[in-house]
Amino acid sequence: MKKKSVILLPKMIQLLETVGEQIKLARLRRKLSSEMVAERAGISRNTLISIEQGKPTVSIGHYLNVLKVLGLENDFLLLAKDDELGRKLQDARLSTKERAPKKK
Fold it and tell me: What residues contact residue 93 under an 8 Å CB cut-off, 6+ apart?
């Protein structure tokens, strides 16, 4: 079975590169070597370098393991936390009753 390559728009590639740079800066602020973080995350140093470069071919699980090592795993929960567009779409589909319910 042939592996499919990931196809991303330039804007998405830039976003991943920014995430990688932020991870690298977090590592450097903590004065952790790439070897140390890679070992603690259970990945190779080359995989960590790929993460810090924002490569889309790296498993999201590896990204999470690196965030855990850096103490930033809860930042992942902020993704799509405030889904403003989704809430607006949901609200637009909600039906309202024409009359108030009767009292019993």
Answer: none
Task: Evaluate whether 29 touches 22 at the Cβ level (below 8 Å).
Answer: no
| Predicted local confidence at residue 103, as pLDDT | 77
**With 90 as the cut, is the pLDDT of residue 93 above it?**
no
Interhelix angle 60-69/45-52, rounded to 10 degrees, is: 100
Map the chain to HEC letters: CCCCCCCCCHHHHHHHHHHHHHHHHHHHHCCCCHHHHHHHHCCCHHHHHHHHCCCCCCCHHHHHHHHHHCCCHHHHHHCCCCCHHHHHHHHHHCCCCCCCCCCC
Mean pLDDT over residues 76-86, rounded?
A: 83
CA 75 to CA 68: how far, in whole Å? 10
